Each structure stands twice: as C-alpha cells, then as structure tokens.
C-alpha cells in the first residue's frame, strides 16, 4: 500500500506535523519505507512524504489534527494544525515469466515447408492484464518468442510509465485537498502524543 502524508498549503507548523506523523506511524508500522519526500518551504518538516507499507492503513485515510502551540511562533494564537493522509493507487509491475502464458501455432505464409509443418508462430499473453502479442516474422520459434517478448515489454513499460504519471498526479491532487475538521486521529503537544 502506498500512503502520502501531506501538509497541503498549510504553514510550516503543518510541515512539522507531517514529519512527526510519519515518525509516529513508523513506530506503529516499522515496515514503512519512504518512497519520496519534499522538504518544507522553511526547512522545517516536510510538505509531503510518500511511503509504502505492507499493512492496511486504509482506516487512516483522511485528516489528522495536531493540537500544539506553534514551536516557530510562540505568540501565535492558532493551536490546531492539519495534515492529510491519502492512499495512492499503485502502478502495475512489468512482466515476469511467471505472469506470461506461452502459446505456439502454425504461422503459414512465406517461409516454405518449415512454417507450414512446424509451430513457429508465438503468442504471449500477460495474465494479469490480458494483453496478448504475437510474432510470426521469423522462421524460428525461438526468434519469434524473443520478438514477442520485446513487444510485450514495450507495451507494459509504456503502461507502467502512464500509471506512474497517474500516480504522481493523484498524489499532487491530494496534496492540495486537506479537509479541516472531523480528523481520523488527533495528536497533542510537542511530543506528538496520540489523543484517545
């Protein structure tokens, strides 16, 4: 699961809250691994942190509130700072041999008796996506299989690049959509203690 913590357009205190929230979640879910992060505008905290975890954190999707006097502006009246937790859709993985079904067939056409008697045509089917590619250009099954694999990898790589673009766009859309109020969790103080 890929999660993004975002301070949105909030002030530096929200960026500090984003960093503290990741540290708190990392204590709860030690397998959390940072995929990307953007440092805060003022050098404090992070404007966003994207991380992966094997745990299901879908219950945490929403707004997190931090109740604390500003560590940067002690005389500031505001004590409530908000960050957002969003689930980012994962990109598909490029093909592996265990995800491919291999079929062979008589290709016919030019090539003499070899192509008519021997199954030289190759069809590769990527099982997770259902994408099928064929190759009959060569007189050898081995060469046709290589050609079909090259075509399949090109298609899957293009799909992965497109999926990563969508993932990045989804992350930035979420970055600017923090909803204040009705938090899924509330933390208090500089020690970032979770309020029950």
Helix content: 25-40%
Radius of gyration: 25 Å
Q: What characteristic shape results from the CA principal axes?
A: rod-shaped
Structural category is: alpha+beta
Q: Kindly report how far apart the N and C termini lie.
A: 25 Å
Spans of 5+ residues with little confidence (pLDDT < 50)?
none
Major sheet: arrangement of strands: 2-3-1-5-4-9-10
The pLDDT mean sits at 82
Strand residue content: 25-35%
Main sheet overview: 7 strands, mixed
Helical stretch tally = 3
Work out the number of β strands.
10
- Helix and strand run: EHEEEEEHEEHEE
Q: What would you note in describing this structure?
A:
It is a single chain. With 196 residues, the chain is an alpha+beta fold. It is built from three helices and ten strands. The protein has helices at 12-28, 113-117, 141-175, and strands spanning 2-6, 33-39, 46-52, 62-67, 80-88, 100-105, 121-126, 131-135, 185-188, 193-195. The strands form two sheets. It has a seven-stranded mixed beta sheet. It has a three-stranded antiparallel beta sheet with strand order 6-7-8. A hairpin with a 4-residue loop joins strand 7 (121-126) and strand 8 (131-135). The longest helix is centred in the C-terminal third of the chain and has 35 residues, at 141-175. The protein is rod-shaped. The model has no long low-confidence stretch (mean pLDDT 82).
């Amino acid at each position: 699961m890929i999660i993004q913590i975002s301070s949105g357009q909030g002030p530096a205190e929200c960026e500090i809250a984003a960093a503290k929230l990741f540290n708190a979640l990392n204590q709860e879910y030690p397998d959390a691994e940072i995929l990307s992060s953007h440092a805060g505008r003022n050098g404090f905290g992070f404007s966003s942190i994207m991380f992966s975890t094997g745990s299901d954190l879908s219950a945490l999707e929403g707004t997190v509130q931090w109740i604390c006097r500003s560590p940067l502006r002690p005389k500031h009246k505001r004590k409530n700072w908000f960050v957002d937790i969003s689930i980012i859709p994962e990109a598909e993985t490029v093909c592996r041999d265990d995800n491919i079904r291999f079929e062979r067939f008589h290709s016919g056409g030019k090539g003499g008796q070899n192509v008519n008697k021997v199954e030289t045509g190759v069809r590769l089917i990527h099982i997770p996506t259902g994408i099928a590619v064929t190759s009959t250009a060569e007189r050898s099954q081995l060469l046709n299989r290589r050609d079909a694999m090259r075509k399949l990898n090109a298609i899957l790589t293009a799909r992965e690049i497109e999926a990563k673009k969508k993932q990045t766009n989804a992350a930035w859309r979420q970055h600017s959509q923090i909803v204040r109020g009705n938090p899924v969790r509330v933390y208090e103080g500089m020690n970032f203690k979770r309020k029950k």
